[in-house]
Amino acid sequence: MDIEYPSYYEEFRCIAGKCKDSCCRGWCIDVDRESKKRLDRIKGPLGEKIKEKLKEEEGNYYFPLEENGDCPFLLKSGLCEMILSEGEDALCNVCASYPRVKQIYGNYAQYDLNASCEEAFRFILKWDGRIVRAVEEGMGEKLSREQERELIHVLAFRTALWEELSYLPTDFNAFFLHLFPFFLEGESQIFPQSDHPLRKNRPIHELLTKWQELEEYPFLSKERYSAFLKWQDKSTEINKDFGQWKELFKKYKMNPEIRFNSLSKEKRLEWENQIVALCRYYLFRYTLLSIKETSLLPVFSLLYQSIEWIYTAFVFINTVSDEEKKQFSCFFGEEPDVLRIAVFFSKELEHDEGNIRNLLYFLPLFN
């Protein structure tokens, strides 16, 4: 099986007690059956605690969170009681594998790390874009000839676009003005007959011609901003901060670009230095979804809206008062705002299938 993964993948190590935004907080822990068998064999006080805390619902096992939102085995030191007592082998699969993600399609697999982990995202922001290619044992499901064709072309599309990313302008409008035609051209070549809802009554060749002729496009106009607010109202709120972000965005109904231009030079550079890193993350993670969706447009939709949200949050949080900023729990110390915002956004959106579908099926450029 051919595999690909970001060059930082094998460097990642959990920072445990040093983590400011622990994955052992805020998430109910699902326990797979094999892990439950291992947990059942643990004796002593820890074994008794496991039996007390482990719950079952409709044949599914899980550890509910404590009243303070922590995993029952998270110690004040930030370390895991299970690991300290029994070693890492005692962990259930979801804890042992996070933030690692594996996708398999036919005889191709890709590995990467989820942006909802702050240490993983530090690697993502520093990533130079190098992808490691290797071979491992194993085979995925057999693909039809058409599916194999789509896989080959989708990977070729990603590789070709990958080479261009570093050369795109870092201005938000200009970046996406150059990026969107790449997706439209890929769509016309790989999925010319797609009946995806985003393609409804929109001839792809006409769209491509139109966008190739544009010299500028107001992605952050008043109309686009209304669409930006609209998709958020359809999203499931997991953390109360998401509601606070929505209220902040509605309170200041101003073109984010105007606010961006009022930022200090250092803050503007902070963003411009990260837009390519963000694009690489979403492009690598989600391009394969185009095969399931039979269209590249939903991938662009997810990529665009995710970066737009992070950009807007970054701009607004740097133009409001310190008191308003303190209302949001995702900021810690002096770390880059882009990191803290992107990690929060990933936790809120990427771990909820409904929220992901919302991003895939609502392309504001078409609304």
TrEMBL record:
Instruction: Report what the protein is called.
Output: Flagellin lysine-N-methylase
The organism sits in which domain of life? Bacteria
Species name: Oribacterium asaccharolyticum ACB7
